[in-house]
Design brief:
The chain is mostly helical. It is built from 21 helices and seven strands.
Length: about 450
Amino acid sequence: MKIPISPPDFQSLINHIIKDSPEKLGEMFSSGIKPAPKGKYHHWDKLRHLKLPSTVSNHEEWWLAIKIARKALYKKIPHSDKDGNPFVFGEPDTVRRLLHEIDVHGGGELKTTEQVANPNTRDTYLINSLIEESITSSQLEGAATTRKVAKEMLRQKRKPRDKSETMILNNYHAMEYIKDISNESLTPDLIFELHRTLSNNTMDDPDTVGKLRVSDDIYVGDDRDATIIHVPPKAKELQSRIENICNFANTTHSTEFLHPVIRAIILHFLLAYDHPFEDGNGRTARALFYWSMLKQGYWTMEFISISRILKSAPAKYTRAYLHTETDDNDVTYFIVHQLDVINHAIKDLLIYLENKSKEINTIEQIVRKSSRLNKLLNYRQISLINRALKNPDAIFYVESHRGSHNVTYDTSRTDLLKLVQMGLLNKMKIGKAFSFTATANLKQKLESI
């Protein structure tokens, strides 16, 4: 990956202006140039190629005016980089707009969707989201398996066959663990336990699981071209740094308000920057983001997968870190990127829920036409029938049905056997387990009942 070109030094630009044209400096401060022109928080690496506004004569002047506007917004984050320089961030209009969209779409709109609001269907969609996040977060860090195989493993609750499947199963358990500790304050021990859950049976050295790294011979690189893109802090600093991260995560009664979503994103950034473990840092950082969101009352975030969006454009994810490191530790770049990701994930989920609602309504119309079906089928059976209609070759198991809806084994088994009794599913034995498939002409059989 190409490392972004660092911006011109701010003080050097100031000195140059003072030397050549002192009156221009005042013009810079009163230019009206925004910290994010046209709503885009551009890094110098991109800005230097953009068309100049009429109010400046070159890109260095434009950058200076933008940095003046940004510095006026900067707030310090109580954590420093490896050289002792503080991280900062700002809240320009584009950040406030994206936060508002999250509060509207990820709060009110998502809470009122039928599938999330209805306790009968909520568990089904929550489990789908946990599965999606578990798979894609692991794939971001190298897990090599298909979504179909991974979903089957999680739904059927079978043992993983290799390291990739183990990573995914661990991620699923970690997401469940986060829910269990979402009311607790963050401590180093909780972070170690989270890493242990995520990394069990996946590390080259089992003794490093759930423990801070002890080596400084570690860096973050681009697997495609072996470019070193980040060298984290020294191992001897990690204990104090992780304690500092926990203090930041837990401090919510400061005199200065910090938006909960920004707090969660910064927590994500800091853990990934410090890179405190031999491996699994990205998964741990993303898991802490979810912990922070749940801790601060954003329970609807359980239903979205940020890793699925990150996986679709991993280079943008990496550049968000690099833009911060190459421009005065300005974490605003990472915040804007993550806010975009969250909003994208929320909108995708709303579209998905709308489509699923239409699919279920199609089946429910058939059910409503039959007084017998209306009395006999519950929402779990309707969901399964819908899947069978979409994929006639699908195979269902008691464990997979149970895992999809968070019900007991007996409830799952009863659901499937009842559909067999009605002639809607076929039952056969594969090995020690029974499997179920849709009968031929399923839709016509539904309509004839």
